Amino acid sequence: MNNDPQDGQLIDRIQKNPKYTELVTKRSSFAWKLSWLMLIIYYAFILVIAFAPKSLGTKISDGSVISIGIPIGAGIIVSAFLLTGIYVRRANGEFDDLTRQIKEETK
Fold first, then answer.
1. Which of 2, 12, 26, 74 has the maximum number of C-beta atoms within 10 A of its C-beta?
2. Distance CA 105, CA 107 (A)
3. Cα–Cα distance between 52 and 54 in angstroms, integer?
4. Per-residue pLDDT tens for 31-50?
5. Which residues contact 58 (CB under 8 A, 6 or more apart)?
């Protein structure tokens, strides 16, 4: 990386911009909320496996070979994709708009 003093001044201007602080705060908060939600979903499933494994082994219906744990496990995988999609949608909207505004103001 170049040690150009102008680079340092640009970084200072960006970091002092209130929209930059807003962006960092909102993005970090949102990412942590989604992360906690995914961890809760995942660890709830693991706790059920550990303490009530027979509940997940229950068959969906009398003649079925599929237990209730299979669709629940698939639902957990789908929830990870959905939460990722939710983050990407907000990142491509609100977070990108704030980034663009910061770039315009620091030119």
1. 26
2. 6
3. 6
4. 999 999 999 999 999 999 99
5. 67, 68
2-17 confidence digits (pLDDT tens): 566 677 888 898 999 9
Report the length, in residues, of the chain: 107
Q: Bridge-partner residues for 59, per DSSP? A: 67
20 Cβ neighbours under 8 A, 6+ residues apart: 14, 102
Q: Contacts from 102-106 at CB under 8 Å and sequence distance 24+?
A: 102/14, 102/17, 102/19, 102/20, 102/23, 105/17, 105/19, 106/10, 106/13, 106/14, 106/17
pTM: 0.81
